[in-house]
Design brief:
alpha+beta, Chloramphenicol Acetyltransferase, 6-stranded mixed β-sheet, globular
Length: 468
C-alpha cells in the first residue's frame, strides 16, 4: 500500500459533516458531434476502458489504526465501476436553473470513504440538447495538476480518437492486518522525528522574513489571517451547496491585461471585487475594509509524491473602491504584495506542517472546530477562495462528444462560504461559483456580476488604450 503525503492526507483530516473536501467538475458536451447521437453507455464504457490510466480511481483509503500516521491507498478488492458511474435525467424544463440545482445537490453529499473517492453522473434532459458529465473527486486524489492529468486521460483531441492501449491486468490488494499496519506506522513516525527541528527552524526563518516584508510594505495589500471583515458569507457553514455557471470571451480578459499592464489573474480578482461589491451593497453589508481572498498557488518544488503541490496566498480585494479600473490597479498592487509575502514565507511551509503534524491532532481539531461552530466566534481567516485554472487551448472531445463548457468547483471552507473558480477553454473563460446555500442562496447574482465587470473593464480599456 502507498502512503499519502501529508498535504494529501490533510484533506481527509479537514473533512467534517459540513465541510466536504471534494472537487466537483461539470463538463457540458455537444452530442451532435457523434453520428449516432448521445448514448450514456458510450461514456461509461470509455471510462471503464481507461481505468488503467487513472490508478487513483481504484484506490480506497485506509486510515491508520492508531491515528499517528498518514493513511494509505489500497487497491480496492471490492472495486466495481458501476458503483461510481450512474445516469440522471434533469426534471423539465431542463434549463440552467435545473442543472445548477442538480449540481448543487450533488456537491452537498460527501463521498463514501468505504469506496474509492470519486463519482461521476451522466446527465441528460438539458433543454438545449447538450448533455453533461458531472464528476466528484476527493481533493486527496486531485488538485489542479492532478486534475489536468485526469482530463488528459478522459478527453481526446478528435471525435474519433482510437482506443487507448490496454494496461497490465489489474490486481487488487488484500487488507493488511491491523498489527502490521500499526507496526508500519510506528516506524514511519519514528523516521519523521529527526525532521522536526529543521522544519521548525525553516518556519521561524520564513515568519521572520514575512514580518520584514510586511513592515517594508506597510499599508500594502498583504493581509494576514484573522483580519478579514465579516460578511454574509462568513462564519460556520452548513452542508448545503448552491452553484452557478457562466461564460465570457477570454479575449476580453487578455485585452484588459494588455491595456493596463496587469495579469489575467489580476483581471479575474478585480472582476470578483466588482461583483462582490455590488452583491454586498445590494444587501447593505459592504464592509469598511477590503475582503481577503485566498488564492491557491502551485509550488514547483513540492513533494513529488503529492497530488496537491499547492500553497495559498492572501490578496486584498478593495470592495470599498467604486471605480472598476481603480479596483484593477489596486488588485494588481495587492497581488504583488501578496506574492512577496508568500515568497518570504516559503511555498513549502504548508507541506512541511502537514507532513509532520500528528494526524490525530489535525483530525480532532477540525472536527471540534466544526462541531462548536468556532468559525462564527472569531474574526474570519479569509472571506472566499478565488482560483484561476489554465485550461486546454484546443478543441476537446469526451467519448466523441465535443466539450462546450468546463466548470471546476472547489471546496467551500468553514468560515468562508464561497469559492469562485475560472477556467480558460479555447476562446472562452468558464466561471463556476459554489457557495454554502444557507449563506449565499443566489450565487448566479455574483456570476452575472463577474461577467458584467469583465465587460465593463473591456469597455474602459478600449477607451483608454484602443490599440491594445
Amino acid at each position: 500500500m502507498k502512503k499519502l503525503s501529508g498535504i494529501d492526507a490533510s484533506f481527509l483530516y479537514l473533512e467534517t459533516p459540513a465541510m466536504h473536501m471534494h472537487v466537483v467538475g461539470a463538463l457540458v458536451l455537444d452530442p451532435s458531434s457523434a453520428a449516432e447521437g448521445y448514448r450514456a453507455d458510450r461514456v461509461r464504457n470509455m471510462i471503464e476502458e481507461r481505468l488503467h490510466l487513472l490508478p487513483s480511481f481504484r484506490h480506497r483509503v485506509v486510515m491508520d489504526p492508531a491515528g499517528i500516521d498518514h493513511p494509505r491507498w489500497l487497491e480496492d478488492p471490492e472495486f466495481d465501476v458501476r458503483r461510481h458511474v450512474r445516469r440522471w435525467t434533469l426534471p423539465s424544463p431542463g434549463g440552467p436553473a435545473e442543472f445548477a440545482d442538480f449540481v448543487g445537490d450533488f456537491a452537498s453529499i460527501p463521498l463514501d470513504r468505504g469506496r474509492p473517492l470519486w463519482e461521476i453522473v451522466l446527465v441528460d434532459g438539458l433543454s438545449d440538447g447538450t448533455v453533461a458529465m458531472v464528476s466528484k473527486l476527493h481533493h486527496a486524489i486531485m488538485s489542479g495538476p492532478a486534475g489536468n492529468e485526469m482530463m488528459a486521460q478522459l478527453l481526446d483531441l478528435t471525435s474519433d480518437a482510437p482506443p487507448r492501449l490496454p494496461g497490465d491486468e489489474w490486481q487488487p490488494e488484500e487488507m493488511p492486518s491491523r498489527a502490521r499496519r500499526a507496526w508500519s506506522s510506528t516506524g514511519s513516525v519514528l523516521g519523521r522525528i529527526p525532521k522536526i527541528p529543521r522544519a521548525v527552524l525553516e518556519a521561524g526563518v520564513g515568519i521572520t522574513r514575512a514580518a520584514r516584508v510586511s513592515i517594508f510594505r506597510s499599508g500594502s495589500g498583504s493581509p494576514i489571517p484573522f483580519t478579514a471583515p465579516r460578511t454574509p458569507f462568513s462564519g460556520a457553514i452548513t452542508a448545503a451547496r448552491a452553484v452557478a455557471f457562466g461564460q465570457c470571451p477570454l479575449d476580453d480578459l487578455r485585452f484588459v491585461k494588455r491595456a493596463f499592464g496587469v495579469t489575467v489573474n489580476d483581471v479575474v480578482l478585480a472582476a470578483a471585487t466588482n461583483a462582490l461589491r455590488g452583491y454586498l451593497v445590494a444587501r447593505d453589508a459592504l464592509p469598511d475594509k477590503p475582503l481577503i481572498a485566498s488564492v491557491p498557488v502551485a509550488v514547483g518544488d513540492a513533494d513529488e509524491a503529492s497530488t496537491n503541490p499547492l500553497s495559498s496566498m492572501f490578496v486584498g480585494l478593495p470592495v470599498g473602491c467604486e471605480d472598476p479600473v481603480q479596483q484593477l490597479l489596486l488588485v494588481h498592487e495587492n497581488t504583488l504584495s501578496a506574492k512577496s509575502m508568500h515568497g518570504a514565507l516559503g511555498g513549502n511551509m504548508l507541506q512541511q506542517f502537514t507532513e509532520l503534524a500528528p494526524p490525530i491532532v489535525m483530525q480532532s481539531g477540525s472536527r471540534a472546530y466544526g462541531r462548536f461552530k468556532l468559525a462564527s466566534r472569531h474574526p474570519p481567516i479569509h472571506n472566499l477562495v478565488v482560483s484561476n485554472v489554465m485550461g486546454p487551448p484546443v478543441e476537446l472531445y469526451c467519448a466523441g462528444y465535443r466539450v462546450v463548457g468546463a466548470y471546476p468547483l472547489g471546496p467551500v471552507m468553514d468560515g468562508a462560504g464561497m469559492n469562485l473558480t475560472v477556467m480558460s477553454q479555447l476562446e472562452k473563460m468558464n466561471i463556476g461559483l459554489i457557495t454554502c446555500r444557507d449563506m449565499v442562496p443566489d450565487p448566479e447574482v455574483v456570476v452575472d456580476g463577474w461577467i458584467a465587470a469583465v465587460a465593463e473593464l473591456r469597455s474602459a480599456a478600449e477607451t483608454v488604450h484602443p490599440e491594445a
